[in-house]
Amino acid sequence: MQDAKPGIDIQHGTDGVRVVLRGAWTAASMTSWRGSREVLRLLAGAPADARWDLLSLHDFDHLGALVLWEHWRREWPPTVEADEDQRTLLDRVAAHSLNLPPVVHRTWRQRVDSFGLQVIAATHQVRDFVTLVGQLLLDVLRLIGSPRWGPWRDFTGHLYSIGAQALPITALVGFLIGVVLAYLMSQVLRQFGAETYVVNILGLALIRELGPLLAAVLVAGRSGSAITAQIGVMRVTEELDAMRVLGVPAGFRLVLPRAMALAICMPLIAVWTTLAALLGGMMAADLTLGISPAYFYEAMPRVVRVANLWLALAKSVVFGVSIALIGCHFGLRVKPNTVSLGQGTTASVVAAITSVILIDALFAVVFKRVGLI
Amino acid sequence: MSTARHRDPQASDASDDAWRLPAPGQPIIQVRDLWSAFPVPGGGQVVVHKDLNLTVVRGEVITLVGGSGTGKTVLLRQMLGLNRPYKGSVQVLGRPVGELSGRGAGARVGMLFQQGALFSAFSVLDNIAFPLRETRVVPDPLVREAALLKLQMVGLKTSDAHKMPAELSGGMIKRVALARALIMDPPLLMLDEPTAGLDPDSSDTFVALLRSLHEELGLTVVMVTHDLDTLFELSNRVAVLAEQRIIIADTVEKVIAYPHPFIHDFFLGERGQRAMELLRERRRETPAPVNEG
């Protein structure tokens, strides 16, 4: 099938030019062999009004016919020696239009319109998000009213996949950040002879800021995308529509368990990450500055006030809920095609991480008098 | 049945590692002693096919039928090399099926997936052109023209070329998927439930399209379908999957006469009777097609 290369013979005789096609002029032969371009180049040297002999071809298909037809400038040459099947193929190519209708470009007016539509779509985004938040509040009230009917199985499932399964990666990242921070600070603090202050800086930075923030960014990347993808696939496979028709509210069954799971997981993961980072910092301080873990353990409660821990926990709850809501929001907006699913997942992760950092900044401004000496 | 292409395959100086297109009436797919097995969650495995044998000859339309879970689609996927045999062998075009999906696969076999499997990021034209464009040998204007030609051959209009798959109806998706399967003019076409999900009207026109393409292009078609109208309209042969093997592969008439509970329920139920009646009427109008199998 693919072994007979397309070939061409141009014979100049007394009665004019005669072009003999040989081998297989098929999609298979023309695409499996690099020399196809060579054949097209040779073909270019054959005059369209020559005598064409197709009878030596042993294989011919639509692509071969198309190549010839284009070379003939879409009309039959005066003499073509071809059998019935080859003529049928050429006739079929001739019978169909080969001109692609042009892509209609947008007019200026349409561009202005589409900008307006984008603005309207943006306001809809905001409205949908507010609706989602409101629905979540209503669902929480409903759950408090009848806790027995809550989506507890979903909740525990998410608790495991969002919380428990995130422990190794958050510990690793936290530990490494702790080591790096402690090492860098030891270089600076040694110049001032203020080595022991590494405990103050590490304690405050990790417990109040970096621990919760790192954990939230990791969880946003890990679980925010997963939530969007899960709900988005449900849109693609019409599961969301099925739930709606069956009278099962998507907010109560999909959004609420995820938001609850994240609200509970997030502070726990934040504490876990902070502990891992402190462990890393402690080890690095021991190695580079000779500050013993025992001193660390003794000094930490003195220099970092416990209010910082409460602040970190509260912050993490807000991070968790916002990651869940953003994930669900973009998941519910996915349109039933794969491109939209990809875009939704990307947008969800970017929005979740941005919102985590914004919320963190907000907390920093509002609670600037809390926990700092 | 006219075969417009691949007229004289034996003339090619075929080396041993070449794909060989057999003469009409000769085997094009050979399934020998095939076992298909899948692991079951929790250990163990389920055997779908056991010592299954089937030969598909060039130029015929063969339909695979069988109850739910008898592995019709699995058999089709085995013939495409998408599933691996647990035991036994599948030969397509004279080569082991595992090599089928290599470079230039589009020129050997076309597959119409049940849901169309169009690339949702590409327009209709780009979907059809995809297999040819990916070879990176053919100049792009030619690729576009080849895709336009196939687009019209499956009954779509050139104005549909720039549409996205999300804008298409079920029938149009099937047509675009068929055009994509045929872009490289493969001699072999596989259809998984070609009319599932289409309304009776689009189903009839799609079957008519498949019929005319089969005749014009001299394709060999392997088809899985539950739709008796499609089956009667298109098949030269019917292969019945039951008890983990092919219990019979023959003309519709002979298959119906074979005593087996599944065949009885499938063809001689109320639905089957109605379709048979239509078949008889049509056979009276036109002489029965010659079976090449």
Rg of chain B, Å, rounded: 19 Å
Would you report the number of β strands of chain A?
Answer: 5
For the record, what CATH class of chain B applies? Alpha Beta
Percent strand of chain A: 5-15%
- In whole angstroms, the N-to-C terminal distance of chain A is 83 Å
Based on secondary structure, the structural category of chain A is alpha/beta
Largest sheet of chain A: 5 strands, mixed
Runs of chain B in which pLDDT lies below 50 for 5 or more consecutive residues are: 1-16
**Could you give the count of β-strands of chain B?**
10
Known CATH architecture of chain B? 3-Layer(aba) Sandwich
Instruction: Identify the overall geometry of chain B.
Output: globular
CATH homologous superfamily of chain B, by name?
A: P-loop containing nucleotide triphosphate hydrolases
Distance between the termini of chain B: 13 Å
- Class by alpha and beta content of chain B: alpha/beta
Q: C-alpha Rg of chain A, in Å?
A: 35 Å
Strand content of chain B: 15-25%
Number of structural units classed as domains of chain B = 1
Mean pLDDT of chain A: 88
Compute the number of structural domains of chain A.
Answer: 2
Can you walk through the features of this model?
The complex is a heterodimer of chains A (about 375) and B (about 290). Chain A is of the alpha/beta class and about 375 residues long. Chain A has helices spanning about 25-30, 35-45, 60-70, 85-95, 110-145, 150-165, 165-190, 200-235, 240-245, 250-290, 295-305, 305-335, 340-365; strands spanning about 5-15, 15-25, 50-55, 55-60, 80. In chain A, strand 1 (about 5-15) and strand 2 form a beta hairpin. The mean pLDDT of chain A is about 90. With about 290 residues, chain B is an alpha/beta fold. Chain B has nine helices and ten strands. In chain B, helix 2 packs across helix 3 and helix 8 (about 260-270) packs across helix 9 (about 270-285). The radius of gyration of chain B is 19 Å and the shape is globular. Chain B starts with about 25 loop residues before the first strand and ends in an 8-residue tail after the last helix. At the A-B interface, helix 1, helix 2, strand 4, helix 3 and helix 4 of A face helix 3 of B.
